[in-house]
Amino acid sequence: MDRIAEHPDGSLEIVDYKSGRQTVTEEDVASDLAMGCYQLLVRHKHPDRRVFATIHALRTGDEASAELDDASLAELRADLQFIGTEILNRDYPNVAPIPKRLCSGCDFLPLCRKHPDFDAGLLEDA
Question: What is the DSSP annotation of the chain?
Answer without folding.
Answer: --EEEEPTTS-EEEEEEESS-S---HHHHHH-HHHHHHHHHHHHH-TTS-EEEEEEETTT--EEEE---HHHHHHHHHHHHHHHHHHHH--GGGPPP---GGGGG-TTHHHHTTSTTHHHHHHHH-
